[in-house]
Amino acid sequence: MLELLGFYDELDDRPGQPNGSIRDAVRPVGEPDEADLVAYLDTGHVLIDVMEAGPDVITGSTHRHSPGCSSLVTDGTWLWRQDFPHYLETHHVSLPQTFLEHVRSLNYRMPTIAVAQFAPHYDETMPLVGWASAVPWRSTATTLVPEPRAVTSKTQFDTTMPAHDRNRPHGSWGKQRKPRKAQAPAPQDRSTAGAVVGAYEPMPGVRSEQQPRMSSTGTST
Q1: Cα separation, 43 vs 37, whole angstroms
Q2: What is the dihedral of CA 137, 75, 118, 176, to 10 degrees?
Q3: Omega into 212 within 30° of 0, i.e. cis?
Q4: Sign of CA dihedral 201, 206, 210, 213
Q5: pLDDT of the residue at 108
Q6: H or E stretch including 123?
Q7: How far apart are CA 96 and CA 217, in angstroms?
Q8: Could you say which residues of the chain have pLDDT below 70?
Q9: Over the stretch 118-149, which tens digit does the pLDDT of each residue have?
Q10: Which residues are CB-neighbours of 218 under 8 A, at least 6 positions away?
């Protein structure tokens, strides 16, 4: 089973989340290498890409990971929500010692995932975080290789987003919504889907809540 980070009670409407209350995890200061840990989390493999948007559950403010906040990310050993780096860099939430040792042993570099070893852990873990419909793993890839992706830093976000906009959520950002748990649609033709390695491919055109976006690793939203 994958280890879990940041699945807090306040982020889901299902009771008894694996990591308890986020308020018990907040600390006044972070790890000395917190910036490196955040950068590591930001480069994880995206398993499920969700359109939902939500604010910081403590302050109510929008943040750099508000869009797609509940998307699921992994390094093959740990699983976290896409917005977990925000809570780490902003509220310095506590981290398991085993996670710290794991990331530091990798010198903060995201590893390649061997699918044959990863898939059983994925299948066991996804129902625990509300994604039973994403099981079993169906990707045809043999390895998942880290790929560069554009990630807005906290400094960039704070610089470009006026303070009054960050602190006054509006639209769908004002209230966190839960991802749909519907069964994934049938696979799409790669010729129209783009360069994706998963068993399911993104549909052409603009995403909407009725048209889920597929991850690069074989699951849908």
Answers
A1: 10
A2: -30
A3: no
A4: positive
A5: 98
A6: helix 115-125
A7: 26
A8: 150, 153-156, 158, 161-221
A9: 999 999 999 999 999 999 999 899 999 988 77
A10: 137, 138, 139, 140, 141, 197, 198, 199, 200
